[in-house]
Amino acid sequence: MDNSNDRFYFRAEGAWRFLAFYYCLLFDVDGTLLDFNAGNPVEINDYYLTQLSQRADTFPGAEEALEELAEVATLAVVSNGVEKVQAGRLEKSGLGRFFDGVFVSGRVGATKPARKIFDTALNTLGIENRKKVLMIGDSLKADIAGGTGAGID
Fold first, then answer.
1. What pLDDT does 41 receive?
2. What is the pTM of this model?
3. How far apart are CA 47 and CA 85, in angstroms?
4. Which pLDDT score is estimated for 92?
5. From CA 128, how far away is CA 131, in angstroms rounded?
6. Could you give the CA distance from residue 37 to residue 63 in angstroms, rounded to a whole number?
7. Would you state the pLDDT for residue 30?
8. Is the pLDDT of residue 138 over 80?
9. Which residues contact 105 (CB under 8 A, 6 or more apart)?
10. Which of 71, 73, 110, 126 has the maximal Cβ count within 10 Å?
């Protein structure tokens, strides 16, 4: 999927998820009705992506772990997420400084588990020995199988 236009990047599977998504965005967290232009989906999506990009929840100890890892390893983010959201989260969390590269599917032109996104990241970072690369992810199919398919353990 080409998500170079982040505005229309929905990963919902089925109309019911879109409708639930649409309904949830009409009300702010405190229950206040938001003033959207008659339910304009572009405006709603922009609002959603902006709000999502400001969510920077991290696990306890994440910063300390990345600080230690950054001293001995090359770190990168490889994501199928929306670029605006990923950039905002990395900035808001303060964790972006630990990464040598951020590779988002919309910019690379391939989504995980495609080998191309992993190849682009490794080639850009100048990493040749894939046996010394560790893939950490939350999706068995996209992250782990994708990394394995790209020759990463």
1. 76
2. 0.73
3. 11
4. 93
5. 9
6. 40
7. 60
8. yes
9. 3, 79, 80, 81, 111, 112, 117
10. 110
The phi and psi torsions of 65 (rounded to 5 degrees) equal: -65, -45
3-state helix/strand/coil string of the chain? CCCCCHHHCCCCCCHHHHHHHHHHHCECCCCCECCCCCCCHHHHHHHHHHHHHCCCCCCCCHHHHHHHHHHHCCCEEEECCCHHHHHHHHHHHCCHHHCCEEEEHHHHCCCCCCHHHHHHHHHHCCCCCHHHCCCCCCCHHHHHHHHHHCCCC
At which residue do the structure tokens 């020995």 appear? 129
Residue whose structure tokens are 């032109």: 109
Selected residue with higher pLDDT from 104 and 46 = 104
Question: Which amino acid is located at 6 in the chain?
Answer: D
Angle of CA points 84, 85, 87, to nearest 5°? 65
Q: Comparing C-alpha atoms, which of 37, 5, 44, 1 is closest to residue 21? A: 44
Please identify which residue in the block is written with the tokens 């972006």.
Answer: 96
